[in-house]
Amino acid sequence: MEQGVFIAVAIGLILLLLIAGVPRNPLKQTGKLIAKLVIGAVALFLINAVGGSYGIHIPINIPTTLISGILGIPGVAALVVVQKWIIG
Predict the structure, then answer these.
(1) Which of 2, 28, 46, 87 keeps 20 to 30 A from 60, CA to CA?
(2) Could you report the per-residue pLDDT of 31-83, keeping only the tens digit for each?
(3) Is-contact 60 45, C-beta < 8 A?
């Protein structure tokens, strides 16, 4: 990696830490994120199981699981709307 790129990335990370703050317990935050991902995957599975008779199928992959896990019920609703009316 070139020196200029390395310095720019380092400065960017330092600015990000100054703005956002240092995570106090990254292991705890990682555990919460993993729990949310599992809950999101289960929610998508339930939507696919129940919504199959209504023509609703949302693939269970990393982006959809992240959306449903982090945003919760509004995220699942948004995925259903996108799948039903935008994608068709």
Answers:
(1) 28
(2) 888 898 888 888 889 888 988 888 888 888 888 888 888 888 898 899 989 88
(3) yes
